[in-house]
Amino acid sequence: MLDTIPVRVRILINHEHKRYRKRSRKPAPWFEPRKTGKLTYGVTDENVADLKQQVWEDSFKPDSPIRAEFLERKGLTDNMIASQYQVDKNFKWKFNTKRTGVIAIKLGMIPQWTKEGEKVMCTVLQVLDNHVIRYTPPEDFQKSQGFHPWFSKNVGSMVVGTLSCSPLLFSKRYNNLFLEAGVAPKRKLTRFLVSPECKLAPGTKLRACHFRVDDYVDVSAKTIGHAFQGVVKRWGFKGQSATHRGGKSWRRAGATGGGRSQAGTRRGKKMAGHMGMDWNTQKGLKILRMDNKYDVIYVKGVVPGPDHCYVRVMDTVLNHRRKGLMKNPPSCPTLLEDSAQKLPSEVLSSDLFDFRDDSISISAE
């Protein structure tokens, strides 16, 4: 019989800093796209309208029988769920407190004018039908995420959805994600990292008044796609001579390798390739105007992405902008529906000029 020799194994984790940008458009190797066919359920055309109306009225409501059956199977009640998400009245805003964000739709850009007559370009964002779908506490969130050095251990995950749709458009597995929240299936879902004291119960509605005028927010979206482009358009290269050089080299990059010591093309070299369709974040955008009736937010500056695209709006992470929140903290975890109804229909920043006011006043003498 052979003698067993103990072997010690040490696993090393090497975080290598990459000098090139990793493309995010390539799907994961384990991802298998599947297309869901048309879900007819064997109904006739005459009964489609009645079926849709019945689904909207009875299937997805807080007191629907489908949700009641789901809670009974999980051993939960509405009172038990409400007790888990009670707001701490003694909570004090901290510098690293993270609230949830919202999903908005970019409508375009419109100019605004200050009281001094200066023109300011603003991006119009509309928050449509946002609801909290699920909340994961920090202890469960860390187990599902694994090892991430940039994630704090004291943050949870909150899933937010927007744009309610008919459940006939989705599969049964996807519709089951919204049973706990008691809302209709959403067309778009996203996740925000939140602090435990900023948790919200599933089914809570989020509106534009989640933020305030003169607050600073970060807006994330996918940039406009331009397909495969050359170095002149993609990176702003000057190009080469169009008259005193042989060959068609007017918009070419030129030499890509270095001298004797380099002897090759470095990683991260700016070359022709796919342009756009990458996640981009504009940080520190100021809210200048807000329409609480239609849930519209006017932010100063440009926002990535084309018109009518989904954007993520959240509290800014810039330290010099978050200092103002310590003196005047926002509503945490969010502004409740009863308080939101008492707000004026439209709120403007103190710097903007309200065109409903008189611009010039002449005294009668």
How many helices? 8
Shape: globular
Corresponding CATH architecture: Beta Barrel
- From the N-terminal CA to the C-terminal CA, the straight-line distance is 118 Å
Helicity range = 10-25%
How much is the average pLDDT?
83
- Write down the domain tally: 1
* Strands, count: 13
CATH class: Mainly Beta
Class from secondary-structure proportions: alpha+beta
CATH fold-level name: Elongation Factor Tu (Ef-tu), domain 3
How would a textbook summarize the main sheet?
Answer: 6 strands, antiparallel, barrel
Unreliable residue runs: none
Rg, Cα atoms, Å = 27 Å
Beta-strand portion reads: 15-25%
The string of secondary-structure elements, in order, is HHHEEEHEHEEEEHEEEEHHE
In CATH terms, the superfamily is Translation factors
Q: Trace the largest sheet across and list its strands.
A: 1-2-11-10-7-12
Task: Tell me about this structure.
The protein has 365 residues and is α+β, with helices and mostly antiparallel strands. It has a single domain, classed as Beta Barrel (Elongation Factor Tu (Ef-tu), domain 3), CATH 2.40.30. Helix content is 16%, strand content 24%. It is built from eight helices and 13 strands. A six-stranded antiparallel β-barrel has the order 1-2-11-10-7-12. Strand 1 (102-113) and strand 2 (119-127) form a beta hairpin. The longest helix is centred in the N-terminal third of the chain and has 12 residues, at 48-59. The protein is globular. The mean pLDDT is 83.
